[in-house]
## 1
Amino acid sequence: MTTGTYTMRQALHTAFDSALAEDSRVFMLGEDIADPGGGVTGLTKGLSTTYGKERVRDTPISEAAIAGAAVGAALEGMLPVAEIMIMDFVGIALDQIANHAAKARFMSAGRTPCPVTFRTPVYGGSGNGATHSQSLEAWFMHVPGLKVIVPSTPADAEGLLRSAIFDPDPCVFIDETALHGTRGPRLDTPDRRVPLGKADVKRPGTDLTVITYGRGVRDALAAAESLSRDGIEAEVVDLRTLLPLDLPTVLDSVGRTRRAVIAHYAVEFAGPGAELAARISHDLFGRLAAPVARVGSRFMPIPASTRLESQVSPSPQKIEETVRKVMEDSRG
Amino acid sequence: MQLDVSSQTPGDETLLTMYRTMTLARACEARLRKGFGSGEFAGVIWPSRGQEAIAGGLSTALRRDDRLVTTYRGIHDLLAKGVPPAEIMGEVLGRGAGASRGKGGTMHITCPEVGVMLSTGIVGSGPPVAVGLALAARLQGSDRVVAVCFGDGATNTGSFHEAVNLAAVWDLPLVLICQNNQYAELTPVEETMRVERIADRAAAYAIPGIRVDGNDPVAVHNALSAAVGRARSGAGPTLVECLTFRYGGHYVGDPQVYMAKDRLEQAMRGDPFPRYERFLIEHGVADADRLAALDAASVAEIDEAITVVLDSPEASLGELEADIYADLAGVPR
C-alpha cells in the first residue's frame, strides 16, 4: 500500500514489520515489547505473534544488558533493534552505546563493524516530568561513530527507521510520542527507505529559514502558516538526521533567505542549534541579513505541570515571535 | 546449583598445549617489559603475570570458532585464543602490524578470525556484549559458545549483574570467567565485597558457580570444559571463578604501594609455573629438558614476532579517517 495516509505509530510498526519480514538478521529486544502488551503504548503489538518471541524479545529492566546484547549480536552480523523504552533511561545504556557500539568499527580498523539500532522514544510534552521528558539527542551528536535520527512525519519515520536498521553503522533512532498520532501520506519510495544524512525542505520560503527536526517541524510549519498571512514566507528545513548533518542543504537555504532561526526541543544552551549557528555564521557571514537566532528548551529540568512545561519548551508562538524579531532586526 | 567437574587429568597433548600457552603469555609480557624498561620502545600494558594458568585452561577448553571477550588485562587470554603475537604486540606499540593497525591499542584488541570479538577497557562492560554474542549464536543456529573474562572488580558493576541475569533467563551458551586476582585496580577485593567467594554470586541467578584454583591449569581446564559443555548443550551459563593473584601491579610501573610486601611474597610462592612444571615432570608428561625447550620455543616465537612488529611502519596517518563510519561522507568537517 503506497496510497492513503497513516499515523506515525502505524508507520513505525510498518517499518519494524517489513524489516523483520524481509531479513532474518533483524530482531528486536526491549522491555515489554512482546505480546500481549506489544509495548507500553502498544506500538509493537502483533510483531512477536507474527515473528516469534525469539526475534521479538522481552527483556528484564536492564538497559545496560539490552544495549550490550544488541552490540554483541551486531558484532556477529545480526541487525538488532534495541529499544530503550524512554529516552531518559538511556543513561544506563550509554556506556554500551558510546564506548562500544560507536567505536567498534574504528578501534578494530573495520574488523568488527556494529550495525545496531537503538530506538528510543521521547515522552516530552505530556506532563511526565524531568526524568521522563528529555530530548537528549545532543549527547549522541558528541560521539563519533554514531548516527542520530529524529523523524517528523509518518513517511519519514518509516523510511528513516528502515534505513537505520539496515545501515552498516550504529544508529540512535529517536521518535517522539507527541507525534505518534500525527497522520500523513504513506511512504512512496521503491525501497521504502529515506536516506540518512539528507535534510528535507518541508515548506519552501524566501524570507527566512527555520532549521529544525522532529516536533520542531510541526511547530515551525504552524508558525510559517501564521507568518505567511502577514506576508513573511519562511522556509522550513527538516534535518531528519542530526548525524550525518546535511549542511549543504542548510547553507543553500540560508544562502538564499539570508536569515536563519533554529528550533528544537533539546536544551538551547550547547544544543544541536549551537553547532548549526556556528556553521551558518562562519560560512555565510557576509551574506546574513541578521544574526542567527535559536529557539530551544530553557536550561532547567522539565517541570511536570504541563502549564510549566509549556513555558520551558519551544512552541509555534515562540518560533513565530523569534522569526518576527529576526525580520525586524535585519539589515538591508 | 551444581555442575559436575571432572577430576581426571587431561591427556598429555592437552597438558603440553596449556604449558605452551602459559609460557607464551609469560614470554610476551617479559619481552614488552624489557623493551619498555630499556627505552627500546614505549607503550603500556596491564600485566597478567601470575594469571597464566587461566590462559592455559582457556586455550584447551574452547573450540576455534568459540568466541572470547576479554579486558585490557587480557594479553594472556588473547594468546590462549590464538591471536598472533605480532598482532598483539603491534597493537601495544601502535604499529602497522597491530591487530587494528594501531587504532585500538592494548585495551582494544579484536581478532574475529579466531573468535576474539571484543577487548574492553571499561570494567564490567564485557559481559553484556558477550550475552549478545551468545544470543547471536543461538539465533544463527550455531552451537558455538562464548567465554567472557573479567576481574573481581567487574562483579561489583551493575552491568555484570544485568548481563548474568539476562544470560540466565535466556539460557544462553555463555561461560563467565572471573579472574579473581584479588585487586580491583588498587583496592583489595576484601574491601569491595562481602562475599568471600565470587562464585557465590551465581546463586542469585540460579546458575552454577564454581571456584577453582586459578593457578592450576588442570583445575581451570576441567572447570571450563564442564561449563563449556553445559553451555554447548543448551543448558545455559556458568560462572567460573579462578582464584589467582596479580604479580605485576595494575600497570607496568605500578609501585604497588597499596600491597603489603609479605602478601605479594606469599602469593608468589604459589606461582603457577614451578607448580605446573613439577606436576608435568611427576606425571611423566615431560622432563625438565623438554619443558625448558618448550619455554625457549615460546621465547623465540615472541622474539620473532617483536622483530616483525618493529620492522612494520608506525601507524599510518592515512588510518586517521578510515573506519569512523562505513562511509566517510558522514563525518562532519
## 2
Amino acid sequence: MKTLFDRSVPGRHCSILPACDVEVRTPAETRSSALHLPELSETDISRHYTELAKQTFGVNDGFYPLGSCTMKYNPKINERAASLSGFTNIHPTQDHVQGSLKLLHTAEKYLCEITGMDAMTFQPAAGAHGELTGLMLIKRYHELSGHPERTKIIVPDSAHGTNPASSAMCGFTVVNIPSAPDGCVDLERLKEACGEDTAGLMLTNPNTLGIFDRNIQQITEIVHAAGGLCYYDGANLNPVMGIVRPGDMGFDCIHLNLHKSFSTPHGGGGPGSGPVGCKKFLEAYLPGDRITEKDGVYSIEQRSEESIGAVRSFHGNFLVIVKAFAYLTALGKQGVPEAAQNAVLNANYLKHKLEDTYELANKGICMHEFVLTLEGLKKEIGVSAMDVAKALQDYGIHPPTMYFPLNVHEALMVEPTETESKEMLDHVAEIFLDVWKKAHEDPEYLHGAPHHSPIKRPDEVKAARHPVLRVPLHD
Amino acid sequence: MGSYVPSTLKQREEMLREAGFSSMEDLYRDIPDELKRKEPLDLPDGKSELETDRILRSLAMENKEYLSVFRGAGAYRHYIPAIVQSVVNKEEFVTAYTPYQAEISQGVLQSIFEYQTMICELTGMDVSNASVYDGAVAAAEAVSMCRTPKKKKVYISAGVHPDTLKVVRTYCWAAQDEVVVLPLKDGKTDLSGVDGEGASCLILQQPNYFGIIEDAKAAGECAHAAGLTYVLSMDPFAMCLLPSPAEYGADIAIGEGQPLGMPLSFGGPYLGFMAATSKMMRKLPGRIVGETTDADGNKAYVLTLQAREQHIRREKASSNICSNEALCAMTASVYLAAMGPEGMREAARQCYSKSHYLAQEFERIGLKRAYDADFFQEFVTVCDDPEAMLAKLDAKGILGGQPVEGGILWCATEANTKEEIDALVKEVSA
Amino acid sequence: MKTPVELKYAKTHEWVRFTSDTECEVGLTDYAQDALGDLVFVNLPEPDAEAVKGETICDVESVKAVSDVYAPVSGTVTEVNEELLDAPEKINEDPYGAWLFRLSDVSDADELLDAEAYEKHCEEEGN
C-alpha cells in the first residue's frame, strides 16, 4: 500500500490556518534544511487511514484471545466520557479542576478497595512503567530503613520479561528462580534465594500459566521473614478482582494495567495506564502529587521529601483513567466480581472444549487463561505453534499469544475474557479443532498460512539484518 | 447495574455444567478460603449507561473551561484540525493491541512507520522509535541510552521543564547516576561547569522552560568537546522555524509531542518522541517498525530490532518499555499530514509572531520582561503578585500564564487571535 | 557439521585460530550458528577489552533471541571484525571465515578441545 509520502503532491494542502493577524516576525537564526512532510488534501488523508484501518485487527473486528493482554471489549460510553470537553480542554496546571480531582480521588479509592492497597499514584503510563515505579518504592524503603545492601530482586523464570528489565533499570540485580512445572513458585528454591541481600520478590498471581498459586501466603511470608518486600504484577488481575485481593495475599505494592482489567483500549500499543498502589508504610514514597479531600473539596498536595519524585509529567494519562473510572462506575460492587467470574468461566469452558484434542501445558482449573503446548504436534508432524497461530488468522480471529511463557515449549496462551459469548466460544472451539484436523491432513497448508490476510508471513530476518526504518525520500 | 458480559444466566449455567463446575464459586475452589473476600466490595452499586453518562458529565462540568488560554509551560493549546479526531477514533486503531501479528496489523505498523519518518523529517535525525510515554520520560530514556558502567554522570540544564528534571532525577537515582544541574545565567544555560570526566551526556531544552531560545549549537559543541552525547529536547513547532535538532548537532533528539494534535486533557495522554543518529539506532528504547518483504516478495512492515527489548534481553535490556503511546503517535502523524510542511512553518511563525506581539503590548503598558534574550512562544514578565493578577484574569474567563519564580510565564500560539491578545492586555492593565 | 581440524574449540561453542603463540582469532562454530539460526546482529566487544576465559565477552542476536559469546581463552582484544556489523549473515554462511575478534597476550588455553573432542562434546550435548 502507498505511504502518506507516496501520495504527496507538491503544493497540495488542507486549509487549516487563517493568515497571521499580527505583524509577522522571524527569529535571527532559522532552519536551513528542508521540511519533507507530505502535502495532502483532507480526502487523501481520510482515505489513506481508512485503508490502513481495513488492514488492522482490533477487538471490534473479532475474537482476540491474546493471553496476558486481557483484550476485553472497550465500552463506548468510556470513550465518549473521555472526549467531553470538560476533560479534554483542561490545562494540567490550571485551577478550578474539582471534577478531575474528584475523579482521580474516587478512582484511587475504588482501585485500593479492589486491590487491598492504601494509596495509589496514577503517574505511571503503562504496566512496565508501573513496575519500575513499584520497584523504586521498594528501593526507597530499604534505603531509608538503612539497608542499602538489599539489592536483589527475585523473579520466577515464568515472569513477564518486563519484570527483570524493570529490576535492572532500578539498579537491582535479578535472581531468577525456576518455577515448578505448573508455573507456581517452588518454595524451597524461594527459601534458598532469600537472604540478607533480598530487596523483594516480583510475582503475578494467577501466574503466566493461568494458575492461582495457592501457596501465596507462605510465599509472601517467606520473603517478609527475610526482610524483603513483595511486588504484585497486576497484569493478571482480571480473574480475581473482587474475589481475592493482592493486599490480603501479603503484597506490599502493585501495579494495575487499566488497559487490561479495566477495559481501556490499547490503541495499537498505547496509551495505557499503570497506576501503582501500596500499603500505608510505602505511601510517602509514591511519586507525583497527592490528591486529598476535606468536606467535599479536593486539593493537590505535594508529597514529602521522602517521595521518589516523579516518573512522568503532571498526573499521568488522565483520559485513560477517565475511561477506567467510567467502567468502574458502570460495573460497581456487583459488576466487578461478575466480570472476573465470567472471565474464568469462559477460559475454563473453552479449555474444556479443546482439551481432548490439544495438549494443555497444565491440567486442572485455570483462571483467566490457559496455555496449550504444541510440542507434540511439532515433533509428530512438524506443525509449530506459529503455524497454528497463523492458520487461525484465516478464520477471522486473532491468534493467541505465541511462545510465552518461556518455560512451555511451542506455547499458545489463550485468554478469551468475559466479554465473549457462549456462541463465540463454541464457534472458536470449532475453529481450533478444524485447524487441528487440517494440520494432520495437510501440514504444508499450515506452513504457508495465513492465506487470506493482506500479506503473507513477513521476512523478519531481513528486517533486522538490514533495517529500513523510514520511508526513503528523494530530493 | 452495568455489565459487559454477554452470556445469559441460563447460558452460564450450561457452561458451568459442561465444564464440570457446580457454581461460579466452584471456579475458585483452588483458592484458599481464608483468602477470599467474605463481604461485597465497598463500591457503589453498578449503574446503567444513562446514569454512568450523567455522573461523568457532571464531573466534567465541575472543571472550568477557559475560552482564552495564555498558558503553556509544557502543555500547549494549538488548533486541532477535525480530521485528526475523526481518524484516530476509528475503532480498528483504538481497539487493536501492539502489532505482534504482522499479517493482520499492517495498518498500525504502516502508521508507525510513517510516524517514524515524520519524526525523522522534523528533527533531521536518522531513526525514530514508535514513541515513549511523554517528553519527560523521553529525557530519562535518553540518559539510559548513554549510560555505561564508567559513565555515570549526567549534565542537565536548569532550563528544562521542571517535570523533566524531576523525572530524570528519579530515574537517575534508581540507576545510581549523578545528576549535575547547569544553572541559568540571564535566562540561558551556563555551560561553564561542563567537564567530560565520567559523564555520559548533556541535556538541553530548546526553547527552554522560560521560552528562551538557547545557544543550542554552542551547547552541542561544548558537549562534543567534552566527549558527551548531546541530548536536545525540542518543541516540534520550534523545529520548523528555528534550526532543527540535527542542525544544532544533537545526537539524540527528544521532546513532548502533545502540541502535535493532542488536547490538553489535564496532562495526558501525551507523546514522548525520540530520534537519534544511526550510530545510536540499536540503543533506542521501545518499539521500532521496519520495512521488509513477505513470503511472496511484497512490501511488508514488522516490529523489528526486537533483540534490544525486554521480552528478549530481559535484565540486560536498557529499557523496560513495551506499551507506549501508539495512538498518540498516530494523532501526531495525522496532524502533521493535515498541516503539511507549509502549515507547520506557518503555525510556528504565528506562535513566534503572536507571542512577540503580546510581549510588545505588555511592554507598552509597563510590564517588564524578566530576560532580554529572544524567545519562541513563551516569555516571563516580572510580577510581584502573580496570584492576584491571575485571579483577576480568571474572573474574566482568561487562563493567564504560569506562575514561576519572580513572575508569570506567558504563552501565545497560532490559536490566540489578535483580538484575544488585545483583550488580555486590556484586562492586565485595568 | 563442519569442524576444521586445524582449529581449537571451547565447550561453549567458540572456535580459536592461533596466529602465533600468543595471538588468536575467535569465532562461532558451525554447530553454534546452526543452533542459533539466522543471526541478525553482533554486539562486538570494545577494542582493548579484557577477555577472561569463560566469561561473557559479547553477544549475538537472532530475531527472537540474544545469545552470549564466552571468551574461550583469556587475552586482550586487539581488533574486532567490523564487517560483521553490516553483514551478520556471514556467520551463518561461513562460520570459520567470520571471526568476531582477535586477541593478544593469550593465556588459559589449556582446556581447549581439538576437533575430534569437540565433535564428541556436541554429540553429547545434542542428546
